[in-house]
Amino acid sequence: MSGIIEEQRRKPARIDLNCDLGESYGPYRIGQDEALMPYISSANIACGFHAGDAAVMRRTVRLCLEHGVAIGAHPGLPDLAGFGRRAMQISADEAYEMVVYQIGALIGFVKSEGGVLRHVKPHGALYNMAAVRLDLAEAIAEAVYKVDPELILYGLSGSQLTRAAANRGLRAAEEVFADRTYRSDGTLTPRTEPDAVWHDADSAAAQVIQMVSVGQVRTREGGMIGVKADTVCIHGDGPHAVAFAETIRRRLEGAGVRVSAP
């Protein structure tokens, strides 16, 4: 993936901590949504394709409003069994339609509860595919723009998705990941490979501080690459998600970085 930012950046005064939430459905309970609320500033709510259902969307929107957490849509591939993390062969038109459909579903709940939708972040395989496939990136950016040009599109730092957002006239939030390792081309290590995920909060927090303060991250190959950090992702479905969120927020605030939504 080309276009990864090379220069170091000065430590920002503010950073967004976002988390993927609302991923339970039916009788299945995934994540610790309520416990995570005090530590995050933005939530990406599943819209029913890879996870979530109508009742969970409504409940998660209410939680966000109660805690003052910015609400975002988290559209994914139609792959409930694979949690949206398996790549699928889809066209740009299909990507556009999936994203419009899922944003529309969540907007209904957000408006009915008196809230405002603030951003969109694709999920899982759709997110990773759009990071490198220009046609998918442009289709997703177009879908978001057509629904509401005031929405912010979250995408992997330096990716095709954030470039497509900027080219379409959308605000883009360059995203980095607390609990994932990076490859030398700036993409995330696939979950199917060893050492793709950090499993302890201190290692994840150290990576976040480095990305936020100096704009660099160490790759799995051992080198350093540049990243731009507007928002940091913490996954809500991991067994130690709350400990990760608490440690990362404490370390950021201890370094003088304020946590707030874009």
From TrEMBL:
A GO molecular-function descriptor: 5-oxoprolinase (ATP-hydrolyzing) activity
Reaction it catalyzes: 5-oxo-L-proline + ATP + 2 H2O = L-glutamate + ADP + phosphate + H(+)
InterPro entries: Glyco_hydro/deAcase_b/a-brl (IPR011330), LamB/YcsF/PxpA-like (IPR005501)
Transmembrane domains' residue ranges: none
Pfam families: LamB_YcsF (PF03746)
Source organism, top-level taxon: Bacteria
EC number: 3.5.2.9
Keywords associated with the record: ATP-binding, Hydrolase, Nucleotide-binding
A GO biological process held by the record: carbohydrate metabolic process
Similarity-based family: Belongs to the LamB/PxpA family.
Known function: Catalyzes the cleavage of 5-oxoproline to form L-glutamate coupled to the hydrolysis of ATP to ADP and inorganic phosphate.
Quaternary assembly: Forms a complex composed of PxpA, PxpB and PxpC.
Protein name: 5-oxoprolinase subunit A
Organism name: Paenibacillus rigui
